[in-house]
Amino acid sequence: MADAQEAATTTAIRTAEASGSEGNVEISSVHCNEATGDEDFLDSPSEMKNQKKKKKKRSTKKKKKDSYVAVGQTDPPTIPIEQLYPDGQYPEGELQVHPGDFNTFRSTSEEKRALDRAQKDLYATVRHAAEVHRHVRKFAQSIIKPGVKLIDMCTQLENKNRELVVEAGFAVRVIGVAAALSAWTVAFDPQFDPLLEAAKAATEAGIAHAGIDVRLGEIGGFIQEVMESYEVTIEGKTYPIKSIRNLNGHSIGPYQIHGGKSVPIVKTDDQTKMEEGEIFAIETFNTTGRGYVVEDGECSHYAKAFDVPHVPLRLPRAKKLLGHITRTFGTLPWCRRWIEREDGGSATINPKGAKQEKYLMALKNLVDTGIVTAYPPLVDVKGSYTAQYEHTIVLRPTCKEVVSRGDDY
């Protein structure tokens, strides 16, 4: 069953197996002359040493130093990102021009440059989040392998994320401003490669056509055109690849991962425009099924509704749980497994003993009253396959910055 769940995908990117370590060089006392077929005997250790040196000279170029190790990070990563960039100057993302003739003035406008400089603190915060994501996803790419339990994978990644942020400061700043979102898909069978390539190419098309004063419905058309130009052959049967029409990208706002604007991945008549200063998650989902997902299965992901009006609660347990959710996560998504931790989801925010127990009735009450929104799994038809890619872009006054871009994707 294809799972296109957006709230917390368990998918990740296909990783090329590193072959950087050189194999052991076996030195033989007999060397065959390829030109004559004669055997040349290396009679002395010095001669063998010279032969070894010659072999090294013929070796390929040195592998490029890992970009994360180059900034002082360990492998696997253990150093908090703030310590790697003590001056607060985090790596700038990939810069692209805003599309359209009506935007050409932006790169040279002194007024727009001044507006850009005024937002340097915002950019630094989002770049910080993006750098954390790049380091964690590199770690993810090293541990995601066939046979690994999903629960073990998730736990390792969550612990690594906690390790790389100074939670007391970083979480508050990012939650109050914005976040850097990015997603990718892993497949261990090359027959699925076209499915991954389609989602990746469609995401890049969405990024390329996104920009200030661009209409959202038009972006969806460009995404769909690229996505549905692909097909995939699985077990000898060829399937057209479709965009999942009821899933979208979205704007990102303060304390709101899913902002008020949606970026469709199929062509629509939506005339809403992207605006200067906005942040968007450009994400695409595809499928070999019908191109439409429905909710199905046990729900584990939730979020407190944004701008929810005051609702009187009669259950004391519901009031207690709501207080814990508000204090720990605000309006950001969370999963039940987190509140079942000894720290209730945050070792910094909560004292020891914040673990939530016997809370299911209280949680149901919060969902039924609309205070908390449930995000159950989303599925297409049984037997179909899906892939997803996502990047975060900032619509700066002078340019468009893909803050989540890395050397992997």
From TrEMBL:
The protein's GO terms of the molecular function aspect are: initiator methionyl aminopeptidase activity; metal ion binding; metalloaminopeptidase activity
Q: Which residues form the Peptidase M24 domain?
A: 182-291
Please share the entry's free-text remark on the cofactor.
Binds 2 divalent metal cations per subunit. Has a high-affinity and a low affinity metal-binding site. The true nature of the physiological cofactor is under debate. The enzyme is active with cobalt, zinc, manganese or divalent iron ions. Most likely, methionine aminopeptidases function as mononuclear Fe(2+)-metalloproteases under physiological conditions, and the catalytically relevant metal-binding site has been assigned to the histidine-containing high-affinity site.
Superkingdom of the organism of origin? Eukaryota
Q: Where does a divalent metal cation 2 bind?
A: 250, 283, 390
Compositionally biased intervals (Low complexity): 1-18
Q: Does the keyword Cytoplasm apply?
A: yes
Q: Which GO terms describe its biological process?
A: proteolysis
Q: What is its main location?
A: cytoplasm
Q: Does the keyword Lipid biosynthesis apply?
A: no
Which EC numbers does the record give?
3.4.11.18
Binding-site residues, a divalent metal cation 1: 390
| Cofactors demanded by this protein | Co(2+); Zn(2+); Mn(2+); Fe(2+)
| Location(s) in or outside the cell | Cytoplasm
Q: Which residues form a coiled coil?
A: none
Show the segment(s) annotated as Disordered: 1-80
Question: Which keywords does UniProt give here?
Answer: Aminopeptidase, Cytoplasm, Hydrolase, Metal-binding, Protease
| Transmembrane portions of the chain | none
Q: Name one GO cellular component term.
A: cytoplasm
* The reaction(s) this protein catalyses: Release of N-terminal amino acids, preferentially methionine, from peptides and arylamides
Where composition is biased (Basic residues), the residues are 51-65
Function comment: Cotranslationally removes the N-terminal methionine from nascent proteins. The N-terminal methionine is often cleaved when the second residue in the primary sequence is small and uncharged (Met-Ala-, Cys, Gly, Pro, Ser, Thr, or Val).
Q: Which protein family is it in?
A: Belongs to the peptidase M24A family. Methionine aminopeptidase eukaryotic type 2 subfamily.
Which named protein is this? Methionine aminopeptidase 2
Q: Which organism is it from?
A: Hyaloperonospora arabidopsidis (strain Emoy2)
